[in-house]
Specification:
single chain, 368 residues, alpha/beta, Rossmann fold, Dehydroquinate synthase-like, alpha domain, seven-stranded mixed sheet, two-stranded antiparallel sheet, 11 strands
Length: 368
């Protein structure tokens, strides 16, 4: 498949997303065509990214322009200390606002790098090169940055759009299957909240997409990005419609926090559990019909995707899960905001439920 270009235009920034295979070979050309120039740049790279791919970026420019900082990407390192390390390098090297920070890694690297870029001199040029399927279809679009605290996930952060996003499929070939499943969770979420036809496409081609078959993987990434693009352009700062992107996430973030962001459950797996929890809650509250519920449930089952919270949690974890749900940043009252599903392609996001109702529901789910 040829190079795909997707244009994002928000109230604060206009930028392009490039999707394709081996497009790092065209890095300098893409920068020139998009009028992006800088005197020096800092590469913040996840240490797990293949060094030969990082070197393609570094070797595109004179060595005196480049500074490389390796980051040990994990939910536990997604904190202020990691941001401060990046800021210290920028300050020591006296970066100007017209210089550039290049993030090479998954969503955690992008979130930390983006947060640092937004803070440095109130805004440093940012190029995001997402290297996981999850980051290519989700966190690289929309400008959300953030870090975790002991009180919950992503409670400190900013909205800060990049100048450019480059999604090279070549990075995905080095990922284990579990990481691809992680990204697939967000692809599925986008289909469920926006496009019944896209869900049908996933239902037909899911195994091939997870095996990175071309052009299906590129089509899935492009369609997923297109859905998020439409939402973000209408509502950049999550005042209304953008809340639908949190489908499954109120549950998911609480699951992750309860497990202390351990490797037992990564973000995409938590989202898949959150999706299953949300559709079951939608069904029991007579919002989602049984036909669509079974279609989604069968899809999760056929691809052997995470779908049972009882495999990860015990009844004793219930109060902790609820505690984190109550702290969710989308809540504005004592009730808990949830995004639920009316039918495949049609979400509902202006719903609030009391703690007792969710407690009873989760208690039954954990007994299974």
């Amino acid at each position: 498949m040829n190079l795909i270009k997707l244009q994002i235009k928000t109230s604060s920034q206009k930028y392009s997303i490039f999707i394709g295979n081996n497009i790092l070979n065209r890095f300098q050309k893409i920068l020139k065509e998009n009028l992006i120039d800088f005197n020096q740049f800092l590469v913040v790279a996840d240490k797990n990214v293949p060094k030969k791919l990082i070197n393609k970026i570094l070797n595109s420019f004179p060595s005196n322009k480049a500074t490389l900082h390796y980051f040990n990407a994990s939910e536990k390192n997604k904190n202020q200390k990691s941001v401060d390390k990046i800021l210290s390098i920028l300050l020591k090297k006296n970066f100007s606002r017209s210089d550039c920070l290049i993030s090479i890694g998954g969503g955690i690297t992008g979130d930390v790098s983006g947060f640092a870029a937004s803070m440095y001199k109130r805004g440093l040029k940012l190029i995001n090169i997402p290297t996981t399927l999850l980051s290519q279809v989700d966190s690289s679009i929309g400008g959300k940055t953030g870090i975790n605290t002991k009180y919950g996930k992503n409670l400190l952060g900013t909205f800060y759009q990049p100048s450019l996003v480059i999604s090279d499929i070549n990075f995905l070939k080095s990922l284990p299957k579990r990481e691809l499943v992680c990204g697939y969770g967000e692809i599925l979420k986008h289909a469920l909240i926006n496009d019944n036809k896209f869900f049908t496409f996933l239902d037909k081609n899911g195994p091939k997409i997870l095996n990175l078959k071309s052009p299906l993987i590129e089509q899935a990434i492009y369609k997923s990005c297109s859905i998020k693009k439409k939402v973000v352009e209408v509502d950049e700062k999550e005042m209304g419609l953008r809340k639908i992107l949190n489908f499954g996430h109120t549950f998911a973030h609480a699951y992750e926090a309860t497990l202390l962001y351990s490797k037992k459950l990564n973000h995409g797996e938590a989202v898949l559990l959150g999706i299953k929890t949300a559709i079951k809650f939608s069904l029991l509250n007579k919002i989602l019909n049984i036909k669509d519920f079974k279609l989604i449930e069968n899809h999760l089952k056929q691809l052997n995707l995470p779908r049972s919270i009882s495999k990860f949690f015990l009844k004793k974890d219930l109060n902790q899960i609820l505690s984190f749900m109550k702290k969710d940043k989308k809540n504005s009252t004592k009730k808990i905001n949830l995004v639920l599903l009316k039918k495949i392609g049609t979400p509902i996001y202006k719903l609030q439920f009391n703690e007792k109702q969710i407690h009873l529901f989760l208690k039954k789910e954990l007994i299974k």
